Every structure is written in C-alpha cells, then in structure tokens.
Amino acid sequence: MLVLEDIVAGYGEAVVLDRCSLSMGHGESLALLGRNGVGKSTLLAALMGQARLISGAIRFMGVDLAAIAPHGRVGAGLGWVPQEREIFSTLTVEENLAVTARPGKWSLARVYALFPRLRERRASWGNELSGGEQQMLAIGRALMLNPRLLLLDEPLEGLAPVLVEELEAAVEMMVREEGQALILVEQHVEQALQLTGRCAVLDRGRIVHMADSRRQLTDVAALDEWISVRAGKEREKP
User: Fold this and answer.
1) Which of 31, 37, 100, 188 is most exposed, with the fewest beta carbons within 10 Å of its own?
2) Listed residue (209, 207, 205, 185) closest to 196, CA to CA
3) pTM for the whole thing?
C-alpha cells in the first residue's frame, strides 16, 4: 500500500527526515514511535504534501505521491487527523462530517455508531465541543472521506482518561473489525502498541527499529532502549 524510499524531507532548508524508508501493506496498522522532535509528525506531513520532499520517493497504491498536489491526496485515499484537529468551528458537528463525505463504508450513521457522543452533540457548533469531542469529530470527519490509509497524529494527547478510553476503543474497532489501515503517532507507547499490528521507531529522521506490536509490548524495556539509547548509538557508528 505504502512505500517510502530513502526520503529526505523537511521545511524550507531544514532537513527533518534523512533517508527514511518504510513500507506497509493493505489493512495494516502501524504505531510510529520515538522521542519528541525526531520527525514523526513530519513523516505524516510529508505524506500529505505539507512538508517539502527534497529527495527520495513516496508511492501510495502504486502512485507517486510527489506528482499529486496536497489537496489531491485526499482523493488518492489519504485521511489525516493533525495534532491541531482543525475542525470547522463555525459549523455544527453534523455539518463538519457532511462537508467531507465521500462514497464508501463510512457513513454518517456509522461514524455516529463509533462515536455516540457526536450523535448527541450533532447540532452543536464545533467551538462548543470539549477537547475530547473535538478529537472524535476530527477522526470522524477524516473517516467520512473513506480513506484507504488514516493518519492519526497523537490523538490521545491531553485528554481526560475517560475520553482516552473511548478513543482507544474506537481505534481498536477500526483496526480489528473494520480492517482500517492506519499510522498512529503516539507518545503513549503501551497504548499505541495495544492498538496496532506493527511498530516502527523513528530516531533522527530514520526508521531504526521495526517489530510486531504485540511482541514488542512484552518487551517494553527493549523498546525504551531503542527510543532513548540504542538509536543514538546506531547513528554514531561511522
């Protein structure tokens, strides 16, 4: 489904991703892990055309994404939920969902079934929602695009525990029952591993470790080593 080949990407003259390579198949779910500032969000931004691709190749569904303008990547099958959520504050919940609707299995009814809170708040303005409700709306709006690959950038950050549980249950349902392919960027390592099939550790702009999420979950100490120690040592080698 997705292949990144030695991509170098960043913002302006600043390089954030340095010869980063990654691949994932249809229906796969991937946790993208790493310390702050290593390029996780930039990788998602590069997929969406929001970060500058300096060199390398990104192929999605066999198509070169560099040849597609950022606004056309939704039509190619990408759905993105950025950290800022960026919901339409002056539209109602239902209008936020309807404005992005594209044909496919994710309909208004199915999004409401996934997030019952949104059905209850369907007539509320976007700026009247709590942070957790806004996150649900941002995810629901992306699902209404019926994406082949969903990109989630730290969806659990800063939310109350009860809302975290609701969002985790929704993501798990998308992955386990719906077979939704997704990349999850998340600082909460254990939650991310529980929700995905594979994990990748990013350090200093490169993928330095990949593993099965369930197996990695039983060896969090090794993952901590990759994130905080080993990745740096690998980069120091001549």
Assistant:
1) 37
2) 185
3) 0.90
